[in-house]
């Protein structure tokens, strides 16, 4: 008998992976649509699911009555942890070297990631002679592999 250990995947990992999977799908499907139709069709197809979800949300969700979900926990918590001013929070952050490096690293990674996302399709079109649709599909494949 083999004893396999099951790996628990936290819900936050599934939630966060949605952005990457969505980016891959958007580039690949958007590029495919762009090769067959014009850019207006891409926007219509991209907006259609949002309209469907908006209608679904409108008919299936009720807004709770104002104050119905309020509890006294907030007041008790506020007494235990009084609010701090911004300067003391900034001082605490700057006093934590590891946190400062983490913030700097995340800032750089995010900046580079967004820059590449915006730039890569134009690069593939200009340097490698692809159409915009082909460039978008290859960008999506590249993001997926990365």
CA gyration radius, whole angstroms: 23 Å
* Number of separate helices: 6
**Roughly what percent helix?**
over 70%
| Residue fraction in strands | under 5%
The overall pLDDT, averaged over residues, is 84
Total number of strands: 0
Q: In this structure, how is the largest beta sheet organized? A: none
Q: Can you write the helix and strand succession as a string? A: HHHHHH
Low-confidence stretches: none
Domains, number: 1
Question: Mind sketching the topology for me?
Answer:
Blueprint: H1 11-36, H2 39-60, H3 73-80, H4 86-94, H5 97-128, H6 132-145
Helix pairs in contact: 1-2, 1-6, 5-6
Tell me about this structure.
The mean pLDDT is 84. This protein has one domain. It starts with 10 loop residues before the first helix and ends with a helix. 76% of the residues lie in helices and 0% in strands. The longest helix has 32 residues, at 97-128. By secondary structure, it is an all-alpha fold.
Summed up:
The protein is mostly helical and 146 residues long.
Sum up the structure in keywords:
extended; mainly alpha; 6 helices; 146 residues; single chain
């Amino acid at each position: 008998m083999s004893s396999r250990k099951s790996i628990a995947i936290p819900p936050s990992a599934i939630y966060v992976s949605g952005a990457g999977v969505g980016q891959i799908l958007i580039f690949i499907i958007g590029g495919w649509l762009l090769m067959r139709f014009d850019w207006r069709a891409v926007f219509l197809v991209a907006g259609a699911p949002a309209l469907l979800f908006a209608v679904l949300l409108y008919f299936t969700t009720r807004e709770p009555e104002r104050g119905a979900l309020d509890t006294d926990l907030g007041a008790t918590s506020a007494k235990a942890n009084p609010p701090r001013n911004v300067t003391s929070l900034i001082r605490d952050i700057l006093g934590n070297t590891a946190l400062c490096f983490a913030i700097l690293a995340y800032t750089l990674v995010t900046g580079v990631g967004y820059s590449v996302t915006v730039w890569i399709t134009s690069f593939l079109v200009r340097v490698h002679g692809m159409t915009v649709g082909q460039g978008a599909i290859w960008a999506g494949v590249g993001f997926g592999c990365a």
